[in-house]
Amino acid sequence: MKKDKEAVLKKAYEMGFYYSKEYKGCSQSVIAAIQDALGIEGDAAFDAVFKSATCMAGGLCSTGTSACGALSGGVIAIGYIFGRERSNFRDPQNIRLKARDIAMKLHNKFMEYYGGSICRDVQKKIFGRSFDLLNPADREAFEAAGAHSDKCPSVVANAARWATEIILEQEGIN
Is the distance from CB of 35 to CB of 46 less than 8 angstroms? Predict the structure, then answer.
């Protein structure tokens, strides 16, 4: 099983990197990579989750002021898999808190590795500075600095791998 788990984690990483580089959209790239790695492509509900993550990229609407889109994508996927359902809104089992604790593992990994969870903090770690992605000149500098050639794809790849590992461990696959 260890070998299979490593193959799944490698696929999550590789697909996260590829999707971010090829299509951009860090949140959606993480979600798609997790779908592929866990073999849940074609799940209509997960596809809706993918669609709903459209505006999460770039620290929420490319503002850089909120959680890193890659982190958001991973948290969204974890929430989809482990979160409470609308039919259980009252949640007497505290499923929402259990899901939060699972997602917190990904948040903590970001804090440890990148020194923050906000998009601009992650940018500072990987670029040495942050960018105003809504400013055309700064956006151009962001791209010229390797934003979608290797910098952001590596963040997305890490988030996809870490989230997938958290999901597998939660499901008892060590």
Answer: yes
